[in-house]
Amino acid sequence: MGDSTSPSDGPAEPRRKSKKPKCLQQELPACKPLLTPMIVVTTFALIGIIFIPIGLASLSASEQVVEIVYQYDVDCIPEQSQNDKVAFIQSSVTNKTCTRTLTVPRHMDGPVHIYYELDNFYQNHRRYVKSRSDKQLRSKASEKVTTNCAPEATTSDGSVIVPCGLIAWSLFNDTYSFAIDSKTIEVNKKNIAWQSDKEHKFGNDVYPKNFQMGGLIGGAKLNANIPLSEQEDLIVWMRTAALPKFRKLYGRIETDLDANEQITVTIQNNYNTYSFEGKKKLVLSTTSWIGGKNDFLGTAYLTVGSLCLFLAMAFIVLYLLKPRTLGDPSYLSWNRNPDGHY
Amino acid sequence: MADGERTAFGDLLRPIADPPVRPDLISLSASATAAASAAVDPPHGSRAEADRLGASLKELADADARVVFVGDPGRTDPGLALPGNAVRTAKYSFLTFIPRNLFEQFRRLAYVYFLAIAVLNQLPQLAVFGRGASVLPLAFVLLVTAVKDAYEDWRRHRSDLVENGRAAPVLDPAGSGQFQPRRWKDLRVGEVIKVLADESIPCDMVLLATSDPTGVAYVQTINLDGESNLKTRYAKQETMSRLPSISAGSVTTLIRCETPNRNIYGFHANLEVDGKRVSLGASNIILRGCELKNTAWAIGVAVYTGNETKVMLNSSGATSKRSRLETHMNRETLLLSAILITLCSAVSICNGIWLAIHRDELELSQYFRKRDYSGGDEKYYNYYGIAMQVFFIFLMAVIVFQIMIPISLYISMELVRLGQAYFMIRDKNLYDESSNSRFQCRALNINEDLGQIRYVFSDKTGTLTENKMVFQCASIRGIDYSEGKDPSPNGSDVYCVVVGDQFWRPKMLVKTDPKLVRLLRSEGETQEGKHARDFFLALAACNTIVPLIVGTPDPKQKLIDYQGESPDEQALVYAAAAYGYVLIERTSGHIVIDVLGDRQRFNVLGLHEFDSDRKRMSVIIGCPDRTVRLFVKGADSSMFGVLEKSIDLDIIRATETNLHAYSSVGLRTLVVGMRELSRNDFEEWQSTYEKASTALYGRGSLLRAVASSVENNLQILGASGIEDKLQQGVPEAIESLRQAGIRVWVLTGDKQETAISIGYSCKLLTSEMTHIVINSNSEASCRKSLEDAIAISSKFVTISSRAQNTITGSGSARVPLALIIDGTSLVHILETELEEKLFKIATVCDVVLCCRVAPLQKAGIVALIKKRTEDMTLAIGDGANDVSMIQMADVGIGISGQEGRQAVMASDFAMGQFRFLVPLLLVHGHWNYQRIAYMILYNFYRNAVFVFIMFWYVLYTAYTLTTAITEWSSVLYSVLYTALPTVVVGILDKDLSRRTLLEYPKLYGNGQREESYNLKLFILTMMDAIWQSLVVFFIPYMAYRDTTVDGSSLGDLWTLAVVTLVNIHLAMDVFRWNWITHLSIWGSIAVAVMCVILIDSMWFLPGYWAIYHIMKTGLFWLCLLGIFAAGMIPRFTMKALAEYFMLNDIQISRELEKFGNFNDFTGTEISMSTFSQTHPGFIR
Q1: CA B142/CA B134 separation, integer angstroms
Q2: How many A-B residue pairs are in contact by the CB < 8 A criterion?
Q3: β-strand B847-851 against B817-822: which pairing, if any?
Q4: Which DSSP category does B732 fall into?
Q5: Partner B contacted by A340 (CB < 8 A)
Q6: Of A102, B52, B405, B1023, which has fewest CB within 10 angstroms of its CB?
Q7: Are B1002 and A334 inside 8 Å of each other by CB?
Q8: What is the DSSP string of B367-393?
């Protein structure tokens, strides 16, 4: 509205004057779109034409992604403990190391992402998502702010837990190491968390305190000498997942993996998902422009696209079978049956 | 009658019934209006109550009245118990603002619902949203309303301050006789106040003296009742003459008057001066809010001050009705509540089951942590057992899913109606230039009802006609003079009065019959000439008209403007003036008439005002020849009863014939009679008249009795025919309404012949119509005529239906029927079992004309239709006698015309002309209905989509009501992200242009058939909502199932998807895109995006930076695009199919608008055919 700023602008005045009554009489210039056959068919055809290539592209992108998924929760329990998995995992004396070999199906371009996948773990449970203190995580000054953190707010003697809350308490603590032909593969655990979280959400002056000291151990312990902003596993874990089945980034293998290579995985199976029958999986995956392996979107686009093309055809047929001139007054109900008393 | 009891109690507390504040009880004095107001609302008031009220007035002793000592406020009100003259229209003060304003606001149910949810959310176990997010929207709405109220109140405070600070000269009570200025707010009852010309009157005062030697004062009451003509008020001679002694305080003068009441047309009091008792009436009081005109000054004594003045007692709000659409909407709201409860129950039951199944696992599940170990003893942490958990979850679900019931809809509906009202008011097609009156929206909540009207009940006089009466012809002693010729405007044949060197001539010219003019001016006493002179003398004298002399640019010429309350009287006085009987002066005691150049003074000895029982008025005149004559004029039915039949039988017969002829051409008739009073007669009358007129209470009925006793044995002088001009465009308007499928019924107080003739002239009746006339005066004959009528009508209906079968579609085969029924018959029909029969016959007739109906019967006829059908009724009228039907009908429209403001005050909408009904109903009504209907459906849909999306997510959170969408977004969703476009579309969208709607009135049927809002559409919309919610939820769900996505990111995706989707949905349904629509829709999406980004920029929220991360991925955008397409396909397909294949008048007309006159322009045809030609190629 540049013209309204200059009152001395001569021609602006009459224009405004003529505009006002039009507005008041609700006669503003307007576009009156109508769903004419042309528009309907064009729209459907256009959607079809756009969607089908996108669908194909997505499918091919998804096809290129190589993914190795290994569910180890049951596998990694020794035969004798299969009947009481919870006791096995809770015991501090059992050997929880578990070594398995995975085969690379196709060549995987680096970086290969390592994820752990939990199922049946409700990180979106109402009790759980609320149980954190963002203020405490950010600065040392707010250390005592533990609202919503119960029952992991303070230790039994009353001193605050940093980081407090159920989310931090339940930090995932299985670890993985990889080797090919007994040569260890480097796992890069740097920059697995969001940069924004590291810089602004988790303070570099906040150090873990009284963490995991309570009667019940939820998960991993934290190194009390490293500030929270460096504890990337925690940061990743604290971005709570949207769904009960979720993956979290564990680290990256920066090198390529060749097809049919045998990877030896050593898993420290520490995390207790057995008490609620949660599944644990290890996932190695490459990425593409649509993310990980996901055929759904491609299929959906193809379905919608072809449906639209079909509808375009169907409408053309319908319009040809039952042609109707648009805006013919003889179609008005009172012209069709002259004394129809509606 | 409970109300009767209440008033009875009221009587105990207050000596004179002070009716509860109700706008319909504005007037009680004129019995016509009393009947009207009593008829308004049968459970609350009836004629019986009005009578009882009158009786109670009579019984009350003088001691209960207010006693005012003139010039002595201290004695009048020693304890300062009476209110001062300060008025207070402001509602609040500084201290009371917050509590009172909150109280006012929470009277809305919607706010209570808001508050209940917010309170629920404050309980720690249920805290779904943060404190801020849950209270903010309510606080915002409350704050905005409070600020608005505060501003309005501040303005009222300011105007109060100005009003109270005005100065008026007040007589010094010390007795110096000087007037000193005093502020209005300091005025007290009993003080003597002087008002100068063109000044407002500060309080209700009894006139003591005026600048006019005869004590006349003219006031303009436009602020009070909207009537622009001047009213005359009189000071009593008794006070006029004693003014010096009164002002010196040497005479004790006291006034006994009623306690304050809201009747602006009545006042009962008497005045005691020097031991002499004088009665005071409504003509002796000037009311606050009026202005003094044409009078240099007036002195009066304050009797009612401040909030006790009649104008203040009468200020009250507009009537409230509820629109049909809103009633339907409430039905659907109940359905939505059922859905809401189902969702909540489902969630809570599922949660219970989940808890039961996982009972043993909860202990060790990291995400649940049933026990709290930190406190030593291991107590449960936030766990109260399954039953309580289920209960809490239920309540939490109500909080989370609260917007399923679209509370914001009520607020946006109010905004939309306000906007619609604004555009209706500003519509230049509803602006009446002649009376300079705009359209008025007095009721703001029934705009959309205007689009669904099926019956229009119209008054005749002042509604169909202009109520500007023009004298057309006279019948004098049975001789008809109806060959009037239009006078040339400045010709010599215009009668002028010569006053000194000035010419005074009547303002309005009337055509005169030269034969009659010659007869009047003929020399010599013929019997004929004498009668004619008496006739015109009667016309000039028997009235309450006040002549005002108005100057013209020519100093030699003045105009005589006749001001009066009855347009009939004005017409008669103008007529008399045109024939040489010019009324030039009126005071309370005498009139001066220029009789053919000879100025004569007539003493007005008594005046019996018009009332609707007697239907006549009379004056007693002392003539210059020392005879005393009684002149009476009135309706023929009332006059023929009091005429002396023995001598003039032939003349009466002849007059009756003439009257019949007049009324058959649509003229209003009045009969004039005269009697010379003998000395005895006069004295007898005078004593009873004086007694009656000084009675403090029950004066009205006493005066009526006096009048009836003297008005008899009259000699007939003649009759007059007055033309009641049709308003401009009435026939066309009626034709349009008829085409639109609206039945127009005319209810009039006029005679049958007049009504029928007006019916013809406004094209309501046509010559090919078959008339069914019902004039019966007993129940049995009514029954018979109704049965006959049904037989006739069924015969015609069968004939026409057969005709329809044989001759397919050739013209109108049906014989139109018209029912004409009179008030006497209606007495026997309404509220008896015959009603059913009347309803049956009336609904098959095309036109119904009711004549000679009383105000109560008008309402009865409206009720007849309203009770038996679902059809919407509209009543339109202008007079006090229409108030009852205006309030009875679903929509009441007042014509702000000649007959005062009562109809307007009672109405929902007011306008200047009957013909505006066509644009109002056909254009605005249609638009409003369509807009509000769509808006309701859209709001239901919009909120349902959102709730369902949250519901689907809850199914994946172990039924614990976590929302991925941030709490701020879910709060802002219906308030900010999607609210503005619905309001803008609700105000501005137009499915069809004004021209099309007026050209094809049948399009109005859309609203009558409830095509834009019905249960079927609601269910379809809801199904669409469920589909879209499934698409919005599950496409991202499936796409992100195996990824590292976090809740906040996915929540942002859902938020943006749903906001954009519902806005696109709206965009698809917009008929007319102008820049405001564009701005609001695309602006809303932009605002939503910005808000989501802003929310995700808060480091203390869990979703920090999530939107930036997810927006970087291609998956996000693909999901959005997919959602839009998949979500819209069903709706788009259905819309395309429906628009093309289901022939709908509105759709066809829209095409017609877009493609112009298709058959006339071959150019468009070519462009169309190119389309069909290109198609085969397209397929290949």
Answers
A1: 14
A2: 305
A3: parallel
A4: H
A5: no
A6: B1023
A7: yes
A8: TT--EE-TTSS-EESS--HHHHHHHHH
- Please tell me the distance from the alpha carbon of residue A12 to that of residue A3, in angstroms, as a whole number: 7
Of B194, B211, B210, B214, the closest CA to residue B202 belongs to B194
**Unique residue bearing structure tokens 């108005």:** B550
Token readout for B499 is: 């006053």
CA distance B413 to B983: 8
CB within 8 Å: A275 and B361: yes
Element (H, E) at B576: helix B567-578
How many residues are present in chain B?
A: 1180
Angle between helix A296-321 and A37-64 (nearest 10): 160
Measured distance between the N- and C-terminal CA atoms of chain A, rounded to whole angstroms: 48
Tell me what pLDDT residue A1 has: 34
Measured between CB atoms, does A127 come within 8 Å of chain B?
Answer: yes
The answer to whether B1099 contacts A138, with C-beta atoms less than 8 Å apart, is yes
C-alpha to C-alpha distance for A96 and A90, rounded to whole angstroms: 10
- In sequence order, which residues have a C-beta less than 8 Å from that of residue A302 and are 6 or more positions away? A51, A52, A55, A56, A59
Residue B550 phi, psi (nearest 5)? -110, 135
Query: And the tokens for B970?
Result: 């879910």
- The angle formed by the CA atoms of residues B858, B862 and B866, to the nearest 5 degrees, is 165
Run of H or E including A118: strand A112-119
For chain A, the residue count is 342
ipTM reported for the complex, 2 dp: 0.93
Asked if residue B685 lies in contact with residue B620, where contact means CB atoms within 8 angstroms, the answer is yes
Helices B1015-1040 and B324-357 cross at an angle (nearest 10°) of 40
**Residue corresponding to tokens 């010019």:** B582
For A:304-333, CB contacts with B below 8 A are 304, 307-308, 311, 313, 315-316, 318-320, 322-329, 331-333
B473: tokens are 């012809």
pLDDT in tens, B334-353: 899 999 999 999 999 999 99
pTM, entire model: 0.79
Residue B607 CA, distance from chain mean position: 35
Asked if residue B857 lies in contact with residue B885, where contact means CB atoms within 8 angstroms, the answer is no
Q: Is B175 left (phi over 0), alpha (psi -120 to 50) or beta?
A: left
Q: Do B425 and B431 meet the contact criterion of CB atoms below 8 Å apart?
A: no
Low-confidence ranges of chain B (pLDDT < 70): 1-64, 173-175, 222-229, 249, 262-265, 314-320, 374-378, 487-494, 524, 588, 612, 695-699, 797-814, 897-902, 1156-1180
Subunit contact A297:B1099, Cβ cutoff 8 A = no
SS3 call for B162: helix
Structure-block tokens of residue B693: 């007129």
- Strands of B291-293's sheet in order across: B230-234, B216-220, B291-293
Residues 57-86 of A with CB under 8 A from B: 58, 86
Hey, what amino acid is at B599? R
Q: How far apart are CA B506 and CA B288, in angstroms?
A: 32
> CA B427, B429, B432, B436: dihedral to nearest 10 degrees?
40
Contact B669, B719 (CB under 8 A): yes
Please name the residue that has the structure tokens 């008594």.
B606
| Cα three-residue angle A185-A188-A189, rounded to 5 degrees | 130
Strand partners, B256: B67, B270
Q: Dihedrals φ, ψ of A216, to 5°? A: -120, 125
How many other β-carbons are positioned within 10 Å of the β-carbon of residue A121?
25
Closest listed residue to residue A206, CA positions, set A264, A155, A161:
A161
DSSP H/E element including B47: helix B47-59
Residues 6+ apart with CB under 8 A from B583: B540, B541, B543, B545, B547, B560, B562, B573, B576, B577, B591, B592, B593, B594
Name the residue of chain A whose CA is nearest to B365's CA: A276
pLDDT of res. B314 = 63
